[in-house]
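Onboarding guide, step 5: your first structure request.
Type a short instruction followed by the sequence, for example:

Predict the 3D structure of this protein.
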Amino acid sequence: MPRPFQLTAATVILLATHAAQAAIYRVGSDAACTHATIQAAIDSAAASGGADEIRIRTGIYPDTALQISGEPQALHLIGGFPSCADAAPEPNAVSTLQGSSGHAVVTIQASPAVTLERLVLADADNGYDGGGIYFSATAGQLTLVDAVAASNHANSGGGIFMANSDGAADPGALRLVLRGRSGLYGNVAANGGGGVYCIRATIRVEDRTEISNNSALVGDGGGIAAHDCRVEVGSRGNANPALWLNQAPDGHGGALYLHGQAASAAIYPVGASAPTRLHLNRARRGGAIAAGGGARVDVHQGWIGQNRATAEGGAIWLAEGDAAGVDTRFAMHDSLEGAPSGAVACAPDEDCNRMQANLVLDGIGNPGSGAALAIVAATPGAASGSAHARFEGTRIDDSTGYSLVTQAGSDSHIVFDGALIVDNDLSGQLAVGVSPSNSLGIVASTVAANALGSGSTVLFGPIACSVDTEARGTRVERSIVWQPGHALLTTFGGTPQPDCYRHLVGNDFSGLPASPERVAADPQFLSTTLRDYRLDAYSPALDFAPAHPADATRDGGPRVFDIAGYGNRFGPQDLGAYEYAPDDLIFAHGFD
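The system replies with structure tokens like these:
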């Protein structure tokens, strides 16, 4: 009789599954409501054994401190219902859960899937972690849909505190997803994570979500503090940038702070001509982003602008890895290769893949180091890992400080590949590297029209390089450096190594021996007045260098185009950030 027994068991399981169907609970004061309080509905849902939905009437619910713990199935809280009898929320309506002192508005523990929709979580004053939401589990997902955490206060995580209670878990096991027109506004953390404080979990920011006006008073991460967390930001914002006006006035990372070898951030576009923007954030170090301890940041075709640091790193601040073999990395990419799902190529536009108008000034207007980027040692004088920064086809302009990039770490590497570095206002030099083990590579890039300090050279760094690698020394190749009144470089430790400076057009190569590979001549840009740094048809930089098809370009166009009728000086590749194309040639000759 074994077969009938098996069928009977299957039938029992099927019946049990149907018995645990989703239930709908309605919260409010009219006759159609099932519960008078949200917590009572949550308690009933926990006992039901199925996936449940709680519908909440519009209005303000004072002194809210909800506890969601051990919910066995998915739980969905939806606000904005005109009455308990209505089957759908009222358009644009929300329900406001007003917090109190000493608690998060919502505490979630050991529940696999919770969704908060059309809710405003506001005004909590929690002396512990998590103002709007405290979220802790070993696995699960919290999703906010058209939901807002605003004006909450906490020790860490003014808006949201989330942590995987398993210290060895993969960050993907616990997730926070912000979608629709969700937002974190005006939350304050006494320590880190004004908007979100995250430990070993994943945060995904989608659609038109904004993280704005949040503060970490004495800690790091005005918008987000991520310790061994993954952060994915692909949002156009509601009417403004995705991360803006956040601040960590005494800490690191106005918009975003990451630390740890499992920490990573991917910032990517979700609409053509709509780069994801980090705007008007402020910190002591790293006005927009700060990263260390082996974290990795990848910005795909994004825009980082008008951020400010008061000490160093107007836009970006990196600390070398805090142990040998641990590398902290930052990159701005001209492509979507490696970007998260949902990325949409940003149209060829000057705001795509751009760092603009970032600054490093102290409280009385004195310029500091690294208006675009500052790299420091993890622990000065101690053995550590390294830090790497790479800019592919990036436009870096209108920034203000003593230097544009600075390397104070003992083992750091910066590469500009196909970058356009123009119109920055610097009281010192463009790039400063203070250790023989630093490296700076400027490859297939254009440096022009930057204001520099009186008597300053463009670059300051070690004398020797590892030719054709990114390791050790200063290397400038296949590039244009047009800074009249300023020689290319000052080196420390002796005479510079000539083969570190190859295939160049610029204004002053004094200190280097004469070579046909280095031509002192006007590169003839189309219009510096209009800030158009493409080459005209008579530029000496055309068809100048050996072909390197892998070099990036500012406009995303291909390398290499060999112009018919032009003699190749050393090869068919043009110097600088742009490769001359057939259409350029036609219009430069006056054809209409």
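Each response can be followed by summary notes, for example: The CA atoms of residues 96 and 120 lie 5 Å apart.
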